[in-house]
Design a protein that fits this description.
This protein is an all-alpha fold. It has a single domain, classed as Orthogonal Bundle (MetI-like fold), CATH 1.10.3720. Helix content is about 75%, strand content about 0%. It contains 11 helices and no strands. Helix 3 runs antiparallel to helix 8, helix 5 packs across helix 6 and helix 8 packs antiparallel against helix 11. The radius of gyration is 24 Å and the shape is globular.
Length: about 300
């Protein structure tokens, strides 16, 4: 056997070993997730009922529910998504397609990458000083949504840039050759081909945001709330109200923390049921993003 055959055989063994290690790592993650879901299901499945979702928190575990928590989580995530996703995608497109490659752009890129790893409590402290005290937005749904939007904004920007960078340059050159402008090339060719990767980044970012607790506690989220924000729908003209943006709030992780910190086991079961609900909400949110990604990719194929 010559040196080439030996080298080839050695590389094949290394490839096979890497495949085994990668498969084991995947199974570790899946088994951990399955064990977590199973543990939550065993403890909390018995507490899941229509009344659990339509009742406010209570000092009696059997009467306590998550109505204010899941409504607050939904509203906060709406503000977060509608703020972070457009801003993050726009910033990523600008940095990758329009910004000049100089020392200033390089510094911005380094800072964005560093911001993606900053602890969430730092964003909470910044939001407390900026949104609560300086802009006087109070301890509201709007403040919480903007705080989480800033938290996940670097992730969306990085994912957008990487997705755009993966688009072959030949697509841009073909568009320019046919007389397309820079914006037409980006809008009609680059963004459609990069949408799948962008949505993957959005999934990761929103999945992180929905489970955050520290920054929301820092800005004054309530641990016990027995009322809902103002309804966005009104019976009189203009029939739409934004008063709910300034309403006090709580979210699912904070409600779970409140229950799990109590000594009574019944409250721990409530926390398990709330955790199971939060995971279902996260999976549903991710499922919507995956469906949209599939639709965009299907359109590109056709």
């Amino acid at each position: 056997m010559n040196d080439l055959e030996k080298n080839t055989a050695r590389r094949k063994k290394i490839d096979a070993l890497f495949a085994v290690v990668g498969l084991l790592a995947t199974f570790v993650g899946l088994i951990t997730l399955a064990a977590l879901i199973l543990d939550l299901a065993i403890d909390g499945l018995g507490r899941l009922s229509p009344g659990f979702f339509t009742s406010f928190p209570s000092r009696f575990a059997s009467q306590a529910g998550i109505l204010s928590a899941w409504v607050g989580t939904t509203l906060v995530m709406l503000v977060t998504a509608f703020t972070a996703v457009p801003m993050g995608v726009a910033a990523g497109v600008y940095l990758e397609e329009y910004a000049r490659k100089n020392w200033l752009t390089a510094m911005i890129e380094i800072n964005i990458a560093n911001l993606a790893g900053v602890p969430s409590i730092v964003y909470g402290l910044m939001a407390l000083g900026l949104f609560v005290y300086q802009l006087d937005l109070g301890q509201s749904v709007l403040t919480a949504g903007l705080t989480l939007a800033l938290l996940i904004l670097p992730i969306v920007i990085v994912a957008t840039r990487e997705s755009i960078r993966a688009v072959p340059g030949s697509i841009r050159e073909a568009a320019y050759a046919l007389g397309a402008t820079k914006w037409q090339t980006v809008k009609d060719h680059v963004l459609p081909y990069s949408t799948g990767g962008i949505l993957t980044g959005v999934i990761i970012a929103l999945s992180r945001a929905i489970g955050e607790t520290a920054p929301l506690i820092t800005i004054g989220a309530l641990t016990f709330i027995a009322f809902l924000p103002e309804s966005p729908i009104k019976s009189e003209f203009p029939f739409v109200s934004l008063d709910w943006l300034m309403s006090p709030f709580t979210v699912m992780p904070i409600q779970m923390f409140n229950w799990i910190s109590r000594p009574q086991r019944d409250f721990h079961l409530n926390a398990a049921a709330a955790g199971l609900t939060l995971m279902v909400m996260t999976l549903a949110m991710n499922g919507i993003a995956i469906y949209l990604r599939y639709r965009f990719r299907k359109k590109i194929k056709w």
